[in-house]
Q: What sequence folds into this?
């Protein structure tokens, strides 16, 4: 569900990252967590914080071809924009701004 919600966010706010790269980032965030929190809101927050702090240094190997670093396909400008967007959304979630629907306006079942 975290992947679905972040894909909705990506599409709704025109974030320039491939769905595949976003999926790998979510998976990596879950793998890196000492303990995955309960609740989709906490899992999304964990993932956003992970992306915001790790994107510039992460090496995302393509599972189908380990020679390909998917993260290297993002420019430094794209990485900075995504880090900033993740940090801002994480801050808003932590501050308990109203309604997740403000950030995720579409049904995740479509993605």
A:
């Amino acid at each position: 569900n975290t992947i679905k919600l972040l894909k909705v966010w990506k599409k709704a706010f025109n974030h320039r990252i491939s769905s595949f790269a976003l999926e790998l980032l979510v998976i990596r965030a879950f793998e890196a967590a000492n303990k995955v929190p309960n609740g989709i809101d906490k899992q999304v927050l964990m993932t956003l914080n992970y992306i915001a702090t790790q994107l510039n240094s992460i090496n995302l190997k393509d599972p189908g071809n380990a020679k390909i670093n998917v993260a290297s396909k993002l420019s430094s400008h794209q990485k900075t924009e995504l880090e900033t967007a993740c940090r801002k959304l994480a801050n808003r979630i932590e501050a308990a701004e109203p309604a997740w629907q403000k950030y995720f306006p579409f049904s995740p079942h479509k993605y």
